[in-house]
Amino acid sequence: MANITYVEASGQSTSVNLNDGWSLMQGATANGIDGILGECGGSCACATCHCYVQEDRLGDLPAASDNELAMLDNVAAERRPNSRLACQIKATAALEGLIVHLPETQE
Ligand code: FES
């Protein structure tokens, strides 16, 4: 399990506990966090689950796959060095306390 904090573009912050194996996209959509859409259901095909990962924790995440990196070219908001797709990040204890910021728009 990991406690993840989502900070929406408005500044609203929500922390949720995610069981291992849940993606950060699932954690957001299941908890009413508006800044992530997840339109493709997590199959890395829509880029509407774009998030900005806390920079000093990037090393705690598995590296992005080639497919994720390609999809990140399609995000609606500015792509940054810490941009990731939330559906491709699965909760594990290593992510405890992680903060992710959400972009102003997903489409
Ligand atoms: S939910 Fe579609 S790419 Fe993440």
Topology:
Layout: E1 2-7, E2 13-18, H1 24-29, E3 50-53, H2 66-71, E4 83-85, E5 99-101
Bound molecules: FE2/S2 (inorganic) cluster (FES).
How does this model look, in words?
The protein has 107 residues and is an alpha+beta fold. The chain has one domain: Beta-grasp domain (Ubiquitin-like (UB roll), Roll), CATH 3.10.20.30. It is built from two helices and five strands. The chain has helices at 24-29, 66-71, and strands spanning 2-7, 13-18, 50-53, 83-85, 99-101. A five-stranded mixed sheet has the order 2-1-5-3-4. The longest helix has 6 residues, at 24-29. The termini are far apart. The mean pLDDT is 97. The protein binds FE2/S2 (inorganic) cluster. FE2/S2 (inorganic) cluster (FES) binds next to loops.
Summarize model confidence as the mean pLDDT: 97
Q: What would you report as the Rg, rounded to the nearest angstrom? A: 12 Å
Number of strands: 5
Q: Note the run of SSEs as H and E.
A: EEHEHEE
Percent range for β-strand residues:
15-25%
Summing up helix and strand content along with how strands pair, one would put the structural category as: alpha+beta
Head-to-tail CA distance between termini: 30 Å
Residue share in helices? 10-25%
Within the largest sheet, what's the order of strands?
2-1-5-3-4
**Low-confidence sequence ranges:** none
Number of helical segments with 4 or more residues? 2
- Give the overall shape, derived from the CA principal axes: globular
- Main sheet characteristics: 5 strands, mixed
In CATH terms, what is the fold-level topology? Answer: Ubiquitin-like (UB roll)
